[in-house]
Write a structure and sequence with these properties.
Layout: E1 3-9, E2 12-18, H1 25-31, E3 51-54, E4 57-60, E5 73-75, H2 77-80, H3 88-95, H4 105-118, H5 124-130, H6 141-155
Parallel strand pairs: 1-5
Antiparallel strand pairs: 1-2, 3-4, 3-5
Helix pairs in contact: 3-6, 4-6
The structure holds FE2/S2 (inorganic) cluster (FES) (2 copies).
Length: about 160
């Protein structure tokens, strides 16, 4: 019998269903809620493409069992900002044209937004360290770093 899991996603109460409670949160968010900002990269918590916010902290949704997020507050890229009012990190990525293929960008933005929420005026080294677990196969790290530093200035 399917288990139901109630939680809050992007400010809305939702119910997810799982035949297998160990199903990754990533699958439920994409397949049941149609939220496609986060991507499946490695499935092993090693690339960051699937990152969401869990109570404001960056979380790899590919390794989080859906049963473990009952009653939790989750924010995805879609809930970080809006088209009319993007989050400063989203705006900075647009301004710096940081994306190439875009596959990693969800993770870069979500990781950076969680980091900047608690670290004001970071150094470039701190940003590099904060994003060390996020991989970009296109090698756009320089533009990504510039975008995060631009956002940091706005958020200071
Ligand atoms: S897909 Fe989750 S960290 Fe790579
Ligand atoms: S922009 Fe292509 S993986 Fe990062």
């Amino acid at each position: 019998m399917a288990t139901t899991i109630k939680l809050t996603v992007n400010g809305k109460a939702v119910v997810l269903k799982a035949e297998d409670p160990s199903m990754p949160l990533l699958y439920a968010l994409r397949d049941q809620l149609g939220l496609h900002g986060m991507h499946f990269g490695c499935g092993l918590a090693q690339c960051g493409a699937c990152t969401v916010h869990y109570y404001g902290e960056a979380l790899r949704s590919c390794v989080m069992p859906v049963s473990a997020v009952a009653d939790a507050e989750i924010v995805t890229l879609e809930g970080l900002g809006t088209a009319e009012k993007p989050h400063p990190v989203q705006q900075a990525f647009i301004d710096e044209q940081a994306a190439q293929c875009g596959y990693c960008i969800n993770g870069m933005i979500m990781q950076a937004a969680a980091f900047l929420a608690t670290t004001k005026r970071p150094t470039e080294d701190q940003v590099r360290q904060a994003l060390a677990g996020n991989l970009c196969k296109c090698g756009t790290h320089v533009r990504i770093l510039r975008a995060v530093m631009r956002a940091a200035e706005k958020m200071a």
